Amino acid sequence: MTSHRIRHEKARVDFGRPISFHFDGKSYTGYAGDTLASALLANGVRMLGRSFKYGRPRGIVGAGAEEPNALTQVETGAATIPNLKATQVELYDGLTARRTTGWPALDFDLKSVSGRFSRFMPAGFYYKTFQSRALWPKFEHVIRQAAGYGSAPEEADLDSYDHSHRHAEVVVVGGGPCGLLTALNLGRAGLNVTLLDEQRELGGWLLSYPHAIIDGQPGYDWLKNIIAELRSLPRVQIFTRTSAFALHDLNLIQAVEQLQDHLPLAERSETSPRQRLHRIRASHIVLATGAIERPLVFGNNDLPGILTASALTTYLNRYGVAVGRRVVMQTSNDFAYQGACDLARAGCSVVLADTRTRPNTVWEQRAHAAGVDVRPGYAISGALGSRAVKAAKLVKISADQNSISGDGPTIECDALGSSGGLSPTVHLYCHDGGRPHWDEEKLAFVAPAMGRAATGIYCVGGITGTFGLQPALMQAHEVSDAVLAATGKASVGERRSIETDEPNAIPARRIFRVPDGKVEGHGKKAFVDFQNDVTAADIHLAVRENYRSIEHIKRYTALGFGTDQGKLSNVNGFAIAAEALGKSIPDVGTTTYRPAYSPVTFGTLAGPHEGDTFEPKRYTPMHASHVARGAVFENVGQWLRPQYFLKAGEDQDAAIRRECIAARRGVGIMDASTLGKIDLQGKDAREFLNRVYANSWTQLAPGKCRYGLMLDENGMVMDDGVTACISDEHFAMTTTTGGAARVLSWLENWHQTEWPDLDVYMTSVTDHWATAAVVGPKSREVLAKVCSDIDLSPSSFKFMDWREGTVAGVAARVFRISFSGELAFEVNVDANYGYHLWEALLAAGAEFDITPYGTDAMHLLRAEKGFIIVGQDTDGSMTPFDLDMAWAVSMKKPFSFIGKRSFARSDTAGPNRKQLVGLLTEDPSIVLAEGAQIIEAPEVNPPVAMLGHVTSSYFSPELGRSIALAVVRDGIKRRSPEGQNAGRDRLFAYFGGQTHRVQVVSPVFVDPKGERQNA
Amino acid sequence: MKKDYSIWSLFTKGLNYNEGWDPAWRSAELKPSYNVVIVGAGGHGLATAYYLAKEHGVRDIAVIEKGYLGGGNTARNTTIVRSNYLWDEATMLYEHALKLWEHLTEELNFNVMFSQRGVFNLGHTLQDMRDIERRVNANVLNGVDAQVLDAAEVKRRIPILNTSRNARYPVLGASYQPRAGVARHDAVAWGFARAASKYGVDIVENCEVTGMDIVNGRLQGLQTSRGSVRADRVGCVASGHSSVLAKMAGIRLPIESHPLQAFVSESMKPVLDTVVMSNAVHGYASQSDKGELVIGAGIDHYTSYTQRGSPHIIEHTAAAIIELFPIFSRVRMNRQWGGIVDTTPDACPIISKTKVKGLYFNCGWGTGGFKATPGSGNVFAHTIANDEPHPLNKAFSLDRFSTGHLIDEHGAAAVAH
Amino acid sequence: MLVLFCPHCQEKREEEEFGYGGEAFRIRPASPDTADDDTWADYLFMRTNPKGWNWELWSHATGCRKFFVVKRNTATNSIAGSWTLSDGRKVYDAEGGSQ
Amino acid sequence: MLEHVSRSPLHAFGLPLQATAINDTRGVWANELPSLGYVSLRGDSKDRTFVEKVTHSLGVALPTSPCTYAGTDGAKVLWISPDEWLIVSQRDRIGSLAADLKAALQGVRSQVADNSGGYTQVLLRGRNALDVLQHTTVYDFAALEPGRVVGTTFGKSSVYAHRSGEGFCLVMRRSFADYIWRYLVRAAAPYGLGIAVVETTGHAALVVA
Predict the structure, then answer these.
(1) Residue D58: inside a domain
(2) Among candidates B7, B289, B326 on the partner chain, residue whose Cβ is nearest the Cβ of A129
(3) What CATH number has the domain bearing residue A215?
(4) Residue D207 pLDDT level (bands cut at 50, 70, 90)
(5) For helices D48-58 and D94-104, what crossing angle results, to 10°?
């Protein structure tokens, strides 16, 4: 194994701490501080996968978030993570990773066969073929199998994630020299500063260019000092391994902090989250996000061993890795020179083709001094090699236009680096609507230094196109002062001029696609977007086909759609498109930058909202009692309510039957605590009720209760419940379980916005009251055992009365209301005593075999009586009249109550409306499905006209047969008189592929005269 | 129409370095007058123009677009196509569309990659299951393929779905429409643009409507950023911007424009081969042919034209997806975006004449417009050509808000995506 | 992600604390029973839905539970201010908003 | 009244049995403060009569500045909105307190509702108490000053929160208490969660710190 390791003291890896890791089943050694990419390169691993469309060999191109190729699957089992860029994976002991492409094997990829036919697979080829309806699913299957990189885990995640909500005066994004200096200036002045950096270590580009001299100090010393001071400032918080991935309206930053992924599996904490999502609302944001070097586009530029010039430099200086020993580089600018010098000094042979005929003389001298073979006026028109780069073909290019002016040598090499200039990292700046502008001198889309200062967003350094260290640091001072001025703070410390040893930069050459002397598309493939296999020719083709908007070009070719989000490719793509369109780059414009800047796990986004804390589960005070008695629970809104109570040997039907019989023949008890309860007080409470309910409340006396229908302005039933008059100016309203919050907000809305003059206040007391409904012929006897201060006699305590008293020793409100049609009492106590009340009632009822029942039995009992459930028997399209509940509407109230006006509209007032009825199947054993459709004839030849549907359906133990409620067009006219089961209209119910004959009857199946509830 | 796109053409053009391809559609300059001008070159607008030309013989048509064609909600949706709606009117309209979808690739000679991989609508509560039963029975009676599946069957078909009874909202079952699926959204716009262009339709991009010329209640023409244009009839299909256009005509619509967000994961190997939608936990997901999980979120509650929403909506959706698919917790979001959806009070569209003669609106598709694209264009073309609604869009007129004849897909169909 | 100033709590709070209540100052017809169908439909369903400055109703749902009005630009999400219902009404009328 | 049969909202977690004296071993200390009573009071803070009568009845100046609270050793009055307050007192005092208020406000536009079953509160102490809160809510608790109370979201629920000594008190609705407690336990896990003895601090919760 040839080592590519070059040990030098500036490297940020710890050569004293070797680390073993596994890649694609082989074991390797790296060092603490390595990334997976640097360690693989150090071990001579070049090819990390095959390309998406053509199956071409691919290797590492970049050194950070910009990496398009090296997508790896890290770890296995529940810990596995798909698609991590090897350039961002910190090496730890025992790390296991594998490549994600190359099938069946890296050495032989089936797609490389298709690659040979690549001329027949231009951009958008799939839109032009596979058009057979019969064959497309098969083609699609093949396409799908071929696509994709890593694999989703096959097990649920064992790690946890959390969120942190922060507020800061200033957030500085980016811990490079500019970010650090700005944070220091602001921190020194006493501002609350939060500094975010995505890397393990602060320093940004300085970590890759350690030879920089700042104010006479070596770069690293400058870095050490500034970090030390920052850490000493009490109001400065520094987060490393924290990637700011989105900037939202009004200065909200989302950032993800990596807390565990860099640790060996065995050292990861089980109590700490894996990642933390920081949501930081900042008064001021300083974007010091730097810039990413883009490569030049040339033939075969995707061979393994071809990297960006800055990545070559980073691997050498930061990680002590020489990607190759014989290096050829090409550049359009000054930036590549330092790396070339460093590589040459490290013992590599370096040829640097500068596409400019007149390079920066200072750099040229330094390069010569370092031993770099500088070739002004040359470019690399193509790379040679099959599985890795073997040589570079140099050509002479014209001084004034991007065309070949002469031949050049072919130089053998084992690494090739190119620099096409820097692309500012403007992503965050653009997330909330900012647009970068094209700077023709810098050849970059840049953000303005004062960003959008009016809203507190500032930019500094590379993001503004200020690429030199010295001017960037001076800009950091300026921006610092602007922020300080905006916050009214005085600056601390002098803003003296900063000196560096950088030569003054000279302009870059305006070149993106290196010419090869051929018409685009005729030569070797020149890739713009590596991850999506988008070539320069593809962009030209898109334009020829009239995909002329940059968004069309992007979407047609898939340019910039990869997990690198086009960090290396976009500007080259825009430039090539501009050339093909004959437009300027700013006229072509950019595509829209969208979060995330770099990918974020779903787990982090979800944070604590999973498992037990996904969404609230609301419990009643009696919950423990229910659990102890075998309750099976149902979700009703956020509440958990007992659906039925299973006894040994029972199934669900048997349990419901037992519960219903108890309530009808003996005594049952139900937990009704979840009902919404609203306390209303005020002189105008009664008038308020008159306005928000369809019926009248004028006559309701203290001590009495009344049922009400609440409508929306569209006239449709939205909620219902019983309201009790506590005193003339005090009412206790109940709402449905699911509607409680909505109703309270609805009432407050009307009161606050429309009728503020009404003297009424309302407060939710839903949680205050625990409610036990004691139901059945024996309920009075049960209650009497635990309540001595209320006269429970029928003559004194009538149906729809309520009384205050003491039950089981606890102060209680007792309502004689019934949702079952039986004699029933709803006992309400302070919820702290709900459990006690429940157990006391069960104990008191033991001799009567009191039976707790759940929502299933409750639904059945009420359906036998034809009582509606809002949301089950109604669906937002039912008026009270549709429900045959005209008795609950008072059209004579002076105020036009909510919803009243809508009744008069032609459709709402018209015939043919669906109305609530009862249904009886001809075969009494058949229980219709809830949701069965009602049709006129038994034949089913679609389309079949539907008259309505079954809303509720049960087998009634009381009647020994099935019953159903339904809404049916003109149903009221169709139904038989109350109590008579011989319906006059026969219809059919359809479900599960079968029709069943039904009769339309009254929805009141049991005790139509209401004798039981009045008993 | 000549079938220019085929294996053969790929082969012959490929031999010639792919230089021989014609423009997919013709870029046109705005002429001074047209028979019909369609405002909005999204899928619906281009389809409208296509069917106007093809089925109604209208020859003088322009589609004008303030940005680039297919750049509005067509470019931003999560591409689900299904027709299993609750109410007859909606079902028939979407089923009409679905039938067109099934032959769209061949009809347009452009592979819109319509993939009938089925759609599951999960039920998590007893009421969800009642609604599913109701909807499926209605679908079957309307001739739409639909099934009710219990939780065990859902688990069998989607093994990675969390069907644990301990989930916060356990999966109790699902409705399933086998013929439903997804399509390649951009391709739909491009395919219609290409086909319409072949019929002579002028497609004018970067042309924003700035005013309407209305005389005596009759539309005469439009003012645009590229000059004025006379038109006998104008059909507005401007998704999020319908209210803005309506205002130019002095009309108020029953519409609010809300952000609707979506996101995709990084590209992965196939792991989900169908479409799963859950209203109770507020998330829906499919996996694109490229391998990205395509995930839709709920709408932001406030109105906005910014094409971006608030992150807590995305966070909630990610949580919902993990609740449904615990194995996706470590999968990463690659990109998120937002569109602007026109929501109506009854969650049903408006395809209607207006009180201004010659002015028609096709809007209010809420979160569910993409799936209707060919059907919407087809019936809207009919409405414009005949100045009378097609039988399938009669119920979707504006006057339903005065008569009270709302269709109300909120009620039980719940998910209107 | 909005931040709204609650004029009752007198603090800026995150959007998650609030509920959106639609367009503000919609006027319920004084006598609905005599309003014609179109007038009623206009009140009930029709919206201006402006692209630009919008007067809108919000409630401080997890805070003080009070409704208040916000003037927000729906094209940019920038916010001009928040007022109590009565104060907002004055500003709105002064701007000619009620016409 | 029947304290022995009363069950607080967090009863199921058996917190009293786990409680120990606060020490340095945990980053966060928490427990429920049971046995407190709550009255929802509504009225117009601009109505001088209302304010005077409440102040007189409670013996505490009714806080009318937004997001403030006031109290004596016996009762704490949390401002909820310009027309709403939550009065916290000892459980055994709440009946008479509500009755007195109700009597004092006869004829004054107002509402007095005993909500003692509807609320509970959790005390949060320790060096990481603020960190835990930052994991749970969008509110800027770092900036919350003593004497101020805020209603804000907590996960997918809501709380009224204020500083109490070096810690915080979170007042929550009964039916959400289970969720909120689980959320707190989860958020506190990285810092170590101790269950604090609160027999004395239960009273301290009523002190205006």
Answers:
(1) yes
(2) B7
(3) 3.50.50.60
(4) low
(5) 150
Whether the per-residue pLDDT at B415 is higher than 50: the answer is: no
Same-domain status, B150 and B191: no
Percent above pLDDT 90 for chain A: 90
Q: Which residues of D touch C9 (CB under 8 A)?
A: 66-67, 81, 150-151
User: Does D186 sit within 8 Å of A160, measured CB to CB?
Assistant: yes
Q: B313, B343, B373: which is the final residue of a domain?
A: B343
Q: What is the DSSP string of A193-258?
A: EEEE-SSSSTTGGGGT-TT-EETTEEHHHHHHHHHHHHHH-TTEEEESSEEEEEEETTTEEEEEEE
D42 and D91 fall within a common domain: yes
Instruction: Give me the residues paired with residue B74 across strands.
Output: none
**Is C45–B310 a contact, with Cβ atoms under 8 angstroms apart?**
no
- Spatial contact of C1 and C15, defined as CB atoms under 8 Å apart: yes
Domain that holds residue B130: 112-179+256-343
Quote the minimal CA–CA distance from C10 to chain A in Å: 18
Is A844 found in the same domain as A745? no
Are A703 and A733 in the same domain?
yes
Class of C3-94 in CATH:
alpha beta
Final residue belonging to a domain, choices B343, B363, B396: B343
Query: Are A228 and A354 in a shared domain?
Result: no
759-818 in A: which are within 8 Å (CB) of D? Answer: 759, 761-770, 809-811
**Contact present, A831 and A621 (Cβ < 8 Å):** yes
d(CA A574, CA A576): 6
pLDDT(B83) > 60:
yes
Domain ranges, residue A705: 677-764
Query: What is the rounded distance in angstroms from the CA atom of residue A100 to the CA atom of residue B139?
Result: 43
CA-closest candidate to residue A958, choices A527, A550, A594, A656: A656
- Are B126 and A933 inside 8 Å of each other by CB? no
For residue D125, give its domain range: 8-35+118-204
Mean pLDDT of D122-151: 95
Question: In chain C, at which residue ranges do the beta strands (DSSP E only) sit?
Answer: 3-6, 11-14, 19-23, 53-59, 67-73, 79-84
How many Å apart are CA A10 and CA A208, to the nearest integer?
10
A899 found inside a domain: no
A422-434 pLDDT tens trace: 999 999 999 988 9
Restricting to D residues 61-90, those with a Cβ less than 8 Å away from any Cβ of A are 83-84
Tell me the mean pLDDT in the region A881-897.
96
Q: What is the CATH number of the domain that holds D54?
A: 3.30.70.1520
- Min Cα distance C31 → chain D (Å) is 28
Tell me, yes or no, whether D125 and D187 share the same domain.
yes
**Which residues lie below 8 Å from residue B282, measured CB to CB, with a gap of 6+?**
B297, B298, B316, B317, B320
User: Which chains does C contact via 3+ CB–CB distances below 8 A?
Assistant: A, B, D
Residue where a domain stops, chosen among A582, A598, A614: A598
Distance from CA of C75 to the nearest CA of B (A): 5
User: By CA distance, what is A167's nearest residue in D?
Assistant: D140
Helix (H, G, I), strand (E, B) or coil at A567: coil
pLDDT higher than threshold 80 for residue A1012? yes
Distance CA(A534)–CA(A123), nearest Å, equals: 8
The tally of domains found in chain B comes to: 2
Output the six-digit token pair for A322: 């020489």
**Cβ–Cβ below 8 Å for D84 and C8:** no
Match 């910014």 to its residue by tokens.
B306
Q: Report yes or no on D2 lying in a domain.
A: no
Scanning every residue of chain D, which has its alpha carbon at the shortest distance from the alpha carbon of C1? D138
Whether residue C2 lies within 8 A of chain B, CB to CB, comes out as yes
> Within this chain, do residues A951 and A978 fall inside the same structural domain, yes or no?
yes
**How much is the pLDDT for A105?**
75
Interface test with D, best of C2, C64, C67, C68 (most D CBs within 10 A): C64
> Same domain for D94 and D197?
no
Which chains does chain B touch, 3 or more C-beta pairs < 8 A?
A, C
